[in-house]
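Lecture notes, continued. The same structure-token format from the folding unit now serves as the input rather than the output. Read the line below as a description of shape only.
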């Protein structure tokens, strides 16, 4: 899940990420001492959990829960809103 939050789109990155020290620390538990999920574990997660409709709302809220947990330990001093000011006209308008 953390790989997805970090922008990695598929299982192809799982082998490298499972050994990445920062990813192992973020995942925590046994991963901090050994390795995070393997590509086969990630594949099972994708086919078992991401295909079930009722899991989508919980997974969509996962990043918000993670951010809330971090802010509970270390509240932010401010929030930066980075808005795109570019003009993107649509065809015919």
């Amino acid at each position: 899940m953390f790989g997805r939050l970090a922008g990695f789109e598929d299982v192809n990155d799982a082998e490298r990420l499972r050994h990445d020290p920062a990813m192992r620390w973020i995942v925590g538990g046994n991963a901090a001492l050994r390795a995070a999920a393997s590509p086969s574990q990630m594949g099972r997660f994708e086919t078992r959990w991401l295909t079930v409709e009722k899991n989508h709302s919980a997974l969509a809220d996962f990043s918000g829960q993670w951010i809330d947990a971090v802010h509970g330990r270390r509240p932010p001093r401010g929030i930066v809103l980075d808005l795109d000011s570019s003009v993107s006209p649509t065809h015919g308008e």
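Point for the exam: DSSP finds six helices and no strands in the chain.
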